[in-house]
Amino acid sequence: MQITFDQVSHMYGKGTPFERLALQNISLTIPSGAFVGIIGQTGSGKSTLIQHLNGLLTPTSGKITIGDVVITPSQRIPHARRKDIGLVFQYPEHQLFEETVAKDVCFGPLNFELPPNMAEARAREALEIVGLDYETMKDRSPFQLSGGQMRRVAIAGVLAMQPKVLVLDEPTAGLDPAGRKAILEGIHRIHREQKLTTLLVTHSMEEAARYADLMLVMAGGELVMQGRPEEVFQQAELLRTLSLDVPETVSFISRINQSLPDKESLPTTLYREEELIAHLLERLSAPKEC
Amino acid sequence: MKPENLLTFSDVTFSYDGEEGQRVKVLKGVDLSIAKGSFVSVLGHNGSGKSTLAKLMNALLLPEGGKILVSGVDTKDGEMIWEIRRHVGMVFQNPDNQIVGATVEDDVAFGLENMGVDPKEMRNRIDEALLSVGMEKYALAQPYRLSGGQKQRVAIAGIMAMRPSVIILDEATAMLDPQGRQEVMHLARRLNREEGITVVNITHFPEEAIDSDRVIVMENGEVLMEGHPAEVFSQVDRLQQAGLDVPFVVRVRHELIAKGYDLPFELHQEELVEHLCRLLLTR
User: Fold this and answer.
1) pLDDT > 90: what percent of chain A?
2) Is A146 within 8 Å of chain B by CB?
3) A290 falls in which pLDDT band (50, 70, 90)?
4) Residue B147 has what pLDDT?
């Protein structure tokens, strides 16, 4: 589903002494099927932005369209369409509440009145996407699982709704590298297979570099950059002034290019680690020109 | 002179009650010591026993078997428990469980007030702690209005202001943005270097461990490896088998030497770039 924001602003506590402009004139277009990385310092408005997508917040001014749904200050997202937008909050494991893993993952589908056997089929599929075996997990209490497993169960609960737009707010915070990779690879796989539109809020420039084909950079409630990762990562200085950084691949390439003659420079588009290594190997094995 | 050990674990075991009522062993006879004034990083995947280790260090948990000494004091000595906790400050991952003050500076002052620190000294320490976590502009802000990352920086300031002899960061940077992470690590390093505070950094980010004096790798309730960062991170295959990552620079070199290129082991970008450029220019 294509998502557009047209001059969207959001003010918290409007009309009270505490009013604060959290989003300021945001205009953006996310094509259907894009994998979007959203980066920005803590407090830059990332979470406020994504909470507009499933009606948790409505804009104070401006217009949002998601597919054919229009959201304005006076027009909320229809209840029946909310299931199309799956929102995974920060620390989603805090929202687990059922007696068993199966019941917890089935809760959403059942709430939208799916028959129990279909809800179970969806739970099975969703758990497998995040790398958990349905049979061994279904009867366990979610509260007896490890932190990483709880996180995966919570994400599966959102995937079981089969959303068309998937929004994840720092889904891997606090997980170990193996757990981070397992979750993101699973998400990336269904993103491709089911042609989802996915928005990933992350503090990890490495995660953004690996998965995103479009990036949004937030600062002080404004959208300061949008573009392809290589375009965004070329603005290293600007990113640093925004308390952000570039992936290690990008700083590595720029260091190498400082030490090499211009004609031997590495392309700055090699922000994905595998591509950088493959390129280095190719350069090392190629006979020297001239 | 042999450095004095601030923390000593001797054959420490710990278990908790599992789902079916059975005991699950989290630590299976851990021996380790942390030297006074050192900066030690603890790596290990979720469930490896890292956090249990941390909670045992300031007597939030007591060992089932074995013995833990903090500056020579047994953590099982009930009369010394407050003294131990004053000595061993702990910063947790989730700031929402740590904030108590009505304003940011009240929150930072909380521990100092309990310790009876002189008001003038308290003011200095609060200002310095807030400045070093980049929250000085928020001294009078209400903590509940801060975002998660900002709260964590306040919580860290509160612990840092207490100037304990050991600071344990239990994945304290997990929720911070890149610069927040850098600021916190920078602060921890500075306190370690300039104030002689011992730092134990429990983390999932191998990059944070590069400049440590020692790295301890936990796996399945046991110490899998320990040593200087170069000794530990040069064992790439073994770490990856344990589900752990190595720093970017180590990964890149590992991939290149696997294809037969000759590059010395390095932990920092500058050095690897130097070797690599030489190789690129002389091939």
Assistant:
1) 63
2) yes
3) very low
4) 65
Most A CBs within 10 Å, among B204, B236, B253, to test the A interface: B204
A243–B146: do the CB atoms touch at under 8 Å? no
A72 three-state secondary structure: strand
Q: Please, which residues have CB within 8 angstroms of residue A174's CB and are 6 or more apart in sequence?
A: A91, A147, B93, B171, B174, B175, B204
Higher pLDDT, A243 or B2: A243
Residues 6+ apart with CB under 8 A from B242: B44, B45, B217, B219, B224
pLDDT tens per residue across span B88-124 = 988 888 767 777 888 999 999 998 998 889 999 999 9
Inter-CA distances, B71 with A197, B75, B78, B84, B180, Å: 55, 10, 15, 9, 31
> What is residue A134's predicted lDDT score, i.e. its pLDDT?
93
What CATH number does the domain containing B173 carry?
3.40.50.300
Residues B127, B130, B136, B138, CA torsion sign: negative
Least Cα distance to A56 among A134, A139, A169, A138 occurs for A169
Closest Cα in chain A to B247? A248
Count of structural domains within chain B:
1
Residues B30 and B214: their CA atoms lie apart, in Å, by 16
Q: What is the pLDDT of residues B54-80, one digit of tens each?
A: 999 989 999 999 999 999 999 999 899
Side-chain half-sphere CA neighbours of A110 within 13 A: 12
Q: Write out the residue range of the structural domain in which residue B94 sits.
A: 5-246
Which pTM does this prediction carry?
Answer: 0.84
Are the Cβ atoms of A41 and B261 closer than 8 angstroms?
A: no
Residues of B in contact with A140 (CB under 8 A): 19
**Given phi > 0 = left and psi -120 to 50 = alpha, else beta, which region is A266?**
beta
Domain ranges for chain A: 247-290
Averaged pLDDT for residues B254-282: 91
Report CB contact under 8 Å: A146, B245: no
Q: How many angstroms separate the CA of residue A67 from the nearest CA in chain B?
A: 31
